[in-house]
Amino acid sequence: MSSIERIRWFLGELRRVKSGLAGFILLFTLIGLTLAFPLLANPQDIANWSGHAKYWEEKMLPRLAPPAWINYVSPVKYPVTRDLHKVYVSKPLVLNMSNNKDLLKYLKLMNPKIAKAVEKLPKTQRAAILNALRKNLNFKYLVFKEVTVVYNFKADVPPKNLITILKLGPIYMTKGLIQGIDILWTRPDGITISLLPGGSTNLTNPFNLNNYAQLNSGSVLNALNIEPQKIYLKNGQVALYIPPGTTVRFSLYDYIASLLNQNNPALISQVFGPLLSRLNISSVSSIYAPPMLFIMSKLEKGMINGTAPVLKGTYKLTFAMLIKVPKKPANIGMPQLTVTRARVLGVYGIIGTDVHGRDLWPALLYGLRWALIVGISVAVISTLIGVFYGVISGYLGGYADTIMTRIAQIVYSLPVLPLLIMLSYFFGPSIWHVIIILIAFGWSGLVFTVRSMVLQIKENLYVEAARAIGASSWRIIFKHVFPQVLPYTFASMALSVPGAILAEAGLSYLGLGDPNIVTWGKILHDAHANGAVLKGAWWWVIPPGLGIAIVGMTFVFIGYALDRILNPRLIR
């Protein structure tokens, strides 16, 4: 029978074994996914998987987010991770404090209630009050600018976060020259709260401080994670300087959480007073609702403990900059306040993200590559070693057979898992060390079956005839004996793959795998270490576990099919 005829015969037999056909289809699909990894995922995600928190921070992905397709199967609709492109930037408002109209506008910005009362006064009284106010000001011009991010919220649960990247500056902060920023949150019901302590509902000047030490710990610096430069002015004053083009990152969730976690009733009442007052709550010691749910829920008493439903509609996050300058704005340059990127974080990707905000999809695909490498390499090498060892042992017989059999029995009787754990610990966490260790202990199980087959084969007449005509032992082994055990070899290779994959996954799950390589076992280890099951993050646990099961099932199907087709006893 020629090679082409043998291939045709094999394919014809394979069509009759449906499970084997399904196994080969799955195998080619898995290999295709492995080869298409650069097209289906970003290789940089794997290169920066461990120890590169800044890389994932810049990607602005949600933490512990379910996959995006959950909205198609769940009755509860989740917000989707996306960039917000609706951003309104106001033109800078320049006010001249020597002008009464501009001074009144400034008063409206700082305290609208007082400004409204002053407007109702007669003209002479109003002018006298404004002149008195002007004498107490240490600046001549004021520049006001704001930028607003708009978020149309339609989901049933709040997003995980809303992150904004800002560019701002220049800002000088000294004892005599106080400048400030405010962060405003406007809800669909028209309620606006100033997120910075000590502010009104329109504008806050959080740098209304008396000394340099207080300036350095200002609430805006903490909210925006700004580290200004320390400079000395010509008059000898010390100033904190934020240069133009300074990039800052504002995380709404982290900032609200930091306010709520302080358990400060005065602070909570000061910041969230516009919400609490409408609930007829004068003071509250602590708020138990999740941060994003609290600021996005309906005005019900359940918003304190997180039982109130969400409020759908248009939300606005406004950043306002107030610059007080002693000279004309043209001499110092207009302030910069722009939003370079605004992103709402919700459900994301094909299989979601982990607790560190890393996309699990490229990790799952990359883990498939190493599952195939480990499984196939360990199965092929250990099977070949076991088969050759069993063939030689059975053919030689006598004392050689006895010694070789005893060695195989000793290796086979050793407790594999404890030894794998111990050796992995001593040899170091390397994927190649794991492969070598699995091969070292994976060959002995085949020896006894192959040896018993060889003991029968070498008694056949054609083997005796080969000896009679002077054929060497090696020629007889490779020409007449080994081809008879080859069908069993192929089936054993396929059936050994799942065990090798499970062994590597088990070592990685115990933390003894290679920390520099993303495998399915490592994903499961990270999920267990971060309490994924307790947190309900099923998308972090099920996909790698299902991947191990699918790859194992693939090779089991192939192994049974090969055994059925190539084993002479099972051929129909």
Ordered list of secondary-structure elements with their pairings:
Elements (H helix, E strand, L loop, with lengths): L2 H14 L1 H18 L1 H4 L2 H5 L5 H7 L10 H4 L8 E2 L3 E3 L3 E4 L3 H11 L1 H8 L3 H13 L5 E13 L7 E9 L1 E3 L6 E7 L5 E3 L17 H5 L2 H6 L4 E4 L5 E5 L3 E6 H9 L4 H14 L12 H5 L17 E13 L3 H4 L3 E10 L14 H37 L1 H16 L2 H12 L3 H12 L1 H14 L3 H8 L4 H37 L10 H10 L8 H29 L6
Antiparallel strand pairs: 1-13, 2-4, 3-4, 4-12, 5-11, 5-13, 6-10, 7-8, 7-12, 9-10
Helix pairs in contact: 2-16, 2-24, 7-8, 16-17, 16-19, 16-20, 16-22, 16-24, 17-20, 18-19, 19-22, 20-22, 21-22, 22-23, 22-24, 23-24
Your description of this structure?
This protein has about 575 residues and is an alpha+beta fold. It folds into two domains: about 5-65 and about 360-565, Orthogonal Bundle (MetI-like fold), CATH 1.10.3720; about 80-95 and about 135-345, no CATH class. It has helices spanning about 5-15, 20-35, 35-40, 45, 55-60, 70-75, 100-110, 110-120, 125-135, 210-215, 220-225, 250-260, 265-280, 290-295, 330, 360-395, 400-415, 415-425, 430-440, 445-455, 460-470, 475-510, 520-530, 540-565; strands at about 80-85, 85-90, 95, 140-155, 160-170, 170-175, 180-185, 190-195, 230, 240, 245-250, 315-325, 335-345. Helix 16 packs parallel to helix 24 (about 540-565). The longest helix is centred in the middle third of the chain and has 37 residues, at about 360-395. It is elongated, with a radius of gyration of 36 Å.
